[in-house]
């Protein structure tokens, strides 16, 4: 069926099967491969996008359900080509990523979290991160990155 | 200012943070076909028949491939690591096959490959396949597998013994006779999985016009994959390009070669003349990507009255899973790493690797080292108690002295060289850790006060060594580009270790450029032809040293070219900030880019006997590995009602020789500790008696979250390695190695279990199992 989904402010119209996952739509239909897929059962959080501003697992939604909603992905975060936004910059400064596979999901979860709570403490940050799995960093430098943003 | 040794942020981050970095599943090609596999639902079963007609008939299905369709291409995989040259060694090579032809030996073994226009259709077609099986009894338990009447994983063998290796030196029996104390215990370490956030995947494309195959693969060893694929497919190496782009975590299992899918996807792309992609889903990953860890040790230690070790004897079983293509790396690591930081005059170690109807076992971060550390550290804890000695003191008394290096351990290590510790100084590490965790104060004041309040607080303190940076070799090519930037190309791949930064620091140190101007290329066999792989904490040591050597040669070429340009002596030149100038005349500088142009003249000739360009390639192959070491200390509180541990403080003091980038090093240690915590507390693969894995999802197999991993405090000592020009030792696995032993000791201490006659002798240790143990189970 033919659908139009707005992603990072741009409308994309495609003819898709009703069963196509939103994650596959983003990655393989419109080529926004920054959203990663780690488990396809909603646990790891790598595929987190913002759905009307709220974090959501794109592997647990069908693309057709996103019609009429505003989807944001990691590709929409930076203020311009070659630039980083303050959260992205803090991740680099604090070494908050290693392989970088979970990072887009982390950034999207934290974008929504910081919008709601711009100055969280460490315990709140860890709680907010607890739905996103990272196997490389042990989380400490990710927490440090968010603390930097919170202190700014 | 020099960049070497500084905590610089990473070159690779901006692309990853913007979602622009290429991972294997991001590769899209016109006409791409998608693969799904029908995998064995049984742990052990004879294949009677396969009916793929309905699958073939499904619209959108392009091909359905069984073992029979592979013809001569169907071959068991190669033996990646041959057995060690230990006299009397037994080894039965049984390698995995591309598709099951006769017998399935573990759940998840691929049986049929379906290629279709989409992954969705391919998975539909997998559901159309009908397979008749004769199920056979499965073996999972290591000891049951060795019973005379046990079902045979490979029925051409007369037992499930995959290998047996005995290494001994000194006279343990005499040591035990002379000992004041001999302790004998059984230790069990159960299976876990590495769970990188990115599963495995392979994309292959055959270009008939170029007569070349390109493969994108989530491998830790692209050059080895290239060479193997060329041989299997009847191609020259130059016809095969293997790219390991950004890899979403490796941790060892992506070093396994060859996975069936790595053999099948390129073959299919050539056969069908269309590009083919397979991406492992998480369920497949639990069955089809290799595991690690099951071992049972019967160990004993002999000590004198002062707590000095006289000898250790260890007999252990190692679960190798259904096949053993990775040889004996994991149990050899266990066997050798057990010796730890200590003088062990007599050592007698016998291991038996056992075939089971479970997923293959290959190295996962630590790669068997944690088992050895667990056994030795637990034995020392128990000996300290029996002798009335402090835990730190018994370790201190047995440390190898700082003037005893190089220290010959006289056992054969995983690289087949005689294990010799290159350098080390263990007491300062221990002292720093004791001080940082507040050891004396905790025991004298904090713990008694907590106990008086009914709180269960404990402390743990564990020492370890890690053999790192083994050969055979890596190489690197450094080249000054016309742009003035410097490229560094090496054959190993990167899975998040920060090579694009650490190697850039090594090169920048020699060439006086900003690290942002060093472009590091890893994991593309068209860019560099030679290499082994990223494993065994060897990237910085081996490839880093090669980069250093190559950069030194380029530095000489730069100075030589500049000396000719300025008509001065090389000694009068200053190389800094990407430019060369004559000392005292900084305004008349020539850039590296211009010098690169001068070194590659369009007319005239380069000086006879010289080569064009500011470029050099170097290789580095250490005769043996560099031995890193460390101490982890932890304060833990156990909730007496739920037995849930809360880590109150965690200290790592580590010595990996010269540090290239402390920020990246900290990240490596944090991540290792987190995996160690998972391994110690959360992660256990649960199997039923028929060999079915019961918790094959991330909802059931829990890995640590941000709420489970504590803030860690790190400190370092620096004992450079004499075996490489940088003085570095590996650090990738160090964080993970001692955590199990540390948890066991700290939990025992918190609950005062020894006073109740209870010891912790197994890992992992979730609350349920801990409760059983505290009840005497």
TrEMBL record, chain A:
Keywords: 2Fe-2S, Iron, Iron-sulfur, Metal-binding, Oxidoreductase. The keyword Iron-sulfur applies. Residues 1-77 form the 2Fe-2S ferredoxin-type domain. CDD domains: fer2. This is (2Fe-2S)-binding protein. It comes from Falsiroseomonas oleicola.
TrEMBL record, chain B:
It holds the Pfam family MoCoBD_1. Transmembrane segments: none annotated. InterPro entries: Ald_Oxase/Xan_DH_a/b, Ald_Oxase/xanthine_DH-like, AldOxase/xan_DH_MoCoBD1, AldOxase/xan_DH_MoCoBD2. It comes from the Bacteria. Keywords: Molybdenum. Residues 18-137 form the Aldehyde oxidase/xanthine dehydrogenase a/b hammerhead domain. This is Xanthine dehydrogenase family protein molybdopterin-binding subunit.
């Amino acid at each position: 069926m033919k659908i139009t989904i707005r992603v990072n402010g741009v409308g994309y119209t495609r003819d898709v099967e009703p069963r196509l996952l939103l994650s596959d739509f983003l990655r393989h239909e419109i080529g926004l491969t920054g959203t990663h897929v780690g488990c396809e059962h909603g646990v790891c959080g790598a595929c987190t996008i913002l759905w009307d501003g709220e974090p959501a697992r794109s592997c647990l939604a069908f693309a057709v359900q996103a019609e009429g909603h505003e989807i944001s992905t990691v590709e929409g975060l930076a203020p311009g080509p070659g630039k980083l936004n303050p959260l992205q910059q803090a991740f680099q400064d604090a070494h908050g990523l290693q392989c970088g596979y979970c990072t887009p999901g982390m950034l999207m979860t934290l974008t929504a979290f910081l919008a709601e709570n711009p100055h969280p403490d460490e315990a709140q940050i860890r709680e907010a991160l607890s739905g996103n799995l990272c196997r490389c960093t042990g989380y400490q430098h990710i927490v440090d990155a968010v603390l930097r943003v919170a202190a700014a | 200012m020099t960049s070497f040794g500084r905590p610089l942020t990473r070159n690779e981050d901006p692309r990853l943070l913007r979602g622009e970095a290429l991972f294997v599943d991001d590769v899209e090609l016109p006409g791409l076909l998608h693969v799904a596999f029908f995998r064995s639902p049984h742990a052990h079963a004879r294949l009677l028949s396969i009916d793929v007609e309905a699958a073939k008939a499904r619209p959108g299905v392009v091909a359905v491939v069984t073992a029979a369709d592979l013809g001569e291409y169907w071959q068991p995989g190669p033996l990646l690591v041959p057995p060690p040259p230990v006299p009397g060694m037994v080894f039965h090579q049984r390698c995995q096959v591309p598709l099951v032809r006769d017998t399935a030996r573990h759940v998840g073994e691929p049986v049929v490959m379906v290629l279709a226009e989409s992954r969705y259709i391919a998975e539909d077609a997998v559901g159309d396949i009908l397979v008749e099986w004769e199920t056979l009894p499965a073996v999972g338990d290591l000891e049951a597998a060795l019973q005379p009447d046990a079902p045979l994983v490979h029925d051409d063998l007369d037992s499930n013994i995959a290998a047996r290796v005995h290494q001994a030196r000194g006279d343990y029996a005499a040591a035990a006779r002379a000992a004041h104390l001999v302790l004998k215990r059984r230790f069990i370490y159960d299976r876990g999985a590495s769970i990188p956030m990115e599963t495995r995947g392979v994309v292959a494309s055959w270009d008939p016009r170029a007569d070349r195959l390109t493969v994108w693969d989530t491998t830790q060893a692209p050059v080895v994959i290239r060479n193997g694929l060329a041989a299997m497919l009847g191609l020259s190496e130059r016809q095969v390009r293997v790219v390991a782009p950004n890899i979403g975590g490796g941790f060892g299992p992506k070093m396994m070669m060859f996975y069936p899918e790595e053999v099948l996807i390129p073959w299919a792309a050539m056969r069908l003349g269309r590009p083919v992609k397979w991406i492992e889903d998480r369920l497949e990953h639990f069955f089809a990507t290799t595991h690690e860890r099951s071992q049972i040790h019967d160990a004993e230690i002999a000590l004198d009255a002062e707590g000095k070790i006289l000898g250790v004897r260890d007999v252990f079983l190692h679960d190798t899973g259904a096949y053993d293509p990775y040889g004996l790396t994991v149990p050899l690591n266990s066997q050798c790493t057990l010796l730890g930081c200590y003088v062990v005059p007599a050592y007698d170690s016998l291991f038996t690797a056992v075939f089971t109807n479970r997923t293959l076992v290959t190295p996962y971060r630590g790669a068997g080292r944690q088992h050895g550390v667990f056994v030795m550290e637990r034995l020392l804890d128990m000996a300290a108690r029996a002798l009335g000695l402090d835990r730190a003191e018994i370790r201190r008394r047995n440390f190898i002295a700082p003037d005893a290096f190089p220290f010959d351990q006289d056992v054969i290590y995983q690289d087949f060289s005689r294990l010799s510790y290159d350098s080390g100084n263990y007491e300062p590490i221990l002292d720093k850790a004791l001080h940082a965790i507040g050891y004396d104060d905790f025991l004298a004041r904090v713990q008694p006060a907590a106990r008086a309040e009914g709180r269960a607080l404990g402390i743990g303190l564990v020492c370890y060594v890690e053999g790192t940076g083994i050969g055979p070799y890596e190489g690197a090519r450094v080249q000054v580009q016309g742009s003035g930037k410097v490229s560094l190309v090496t054959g190993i791949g990167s899975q998040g270790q920060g090579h694009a930064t650490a190697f850039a620091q090594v090169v920048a140190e020699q060439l006086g450029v900003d690290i942002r101007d060093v472009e590091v290329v890893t994991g593309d066999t068209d860019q560099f032809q030679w290499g082994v792989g990223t494993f065994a904490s060897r990237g910085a040591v081996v490839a880093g040293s090669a980069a250093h050597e190559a950069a030194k040669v380029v530095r000489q070429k730069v100075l030589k070219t500049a000396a000719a340009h300025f008509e001065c002596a090389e000694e009068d030149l200053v190389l800094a900030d990407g430019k060369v100038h004559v000392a005292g005349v900084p305004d008349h500088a020539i850039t590296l880019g211009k010098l690169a142009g001068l070194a590659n003249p369009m007319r005239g000739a380069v000086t006879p006997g010289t080569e064009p360009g500011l470029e050099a390639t170097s290789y580095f192959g250490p005769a043996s590995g560099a031995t890193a070491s460390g101490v982890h200390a932890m304060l833990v509180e156990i909730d007496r009602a739920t037995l849930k541990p809360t880590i109150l403080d965690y200290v790592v003091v580590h010595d990996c020789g010269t540090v290239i980038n402390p920020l990246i090093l900290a990240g490596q240690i944090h991540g290792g500790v987190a995996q160690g915590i998972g391994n110690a507390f959360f992660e256990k693969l649960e199997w039923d008696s028929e060999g079915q894995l019961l918790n094959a999802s991330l909802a059931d197999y829990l890995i640590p979250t941000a709420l489970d991993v504590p803030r860690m405090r790190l400190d370092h000592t620096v004992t450079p390695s004499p075996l490489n020009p940088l003085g570095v030792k590996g650090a990738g696995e160090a964080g993970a190695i001692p955590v199990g032993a540390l948890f066991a000791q700290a939990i025992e201490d918190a609950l005062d279990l020894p006073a109740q006659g209870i010891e912790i002798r197994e890992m992992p240790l979730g609350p349920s199992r801990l409760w059983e143990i505290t009840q005497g189970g």
